[in-house]
Amino acid sequence: MTITHASFVTLPVSDQDRALRFYTGLLGFEVTADLDMPQGRWLQVAPRGAQTVFTLSGPGMGGFQPGEARGIMLVTTDVDADAARLAAAGVSVQGPDDLPWGRMASFQDPDGNGLMLLTEKEGF
Predict the structure, then answer these.
(1) Do strands 114-120 and 72-75 pair parallel, antiparallel, or not at all (unpaired)?
(2) Could you tell me if 77 and 31 are in contact, meaning their C-beta atoms sit under 8 angstroms apart?
(3) How far is CA 22 from the centre of its chain?
(4) Whole-prediction pTM value?
């Protein structure tokens, strides 16, 4: 096998503009693509410098249902500060909690897609 990385992760959303505000305004992601396609809007965002991007898949794009995505891990250098920022913006955050691999918190985007923040334990 010669796989080098994941190209994109699909996040099904009901309102692409609302999702765009959440991912860029609150999480600080950047827009990597925003194109009109025959089947709908192709909208992608990513953390600055990331290899893998997130496709905010709107209604009619691929048959995905908003809120289906789970277990998406976002690595951060300060899970406590990021979790506090999300909570201050009205996002329900569980944690942060200490785990064997690091300190982690979980939350959902406006459509219910499950995301996690992780500050990795050194050496893990």
Answers:
(1) parallel
(2) no
(3) 9
(4) 0.92
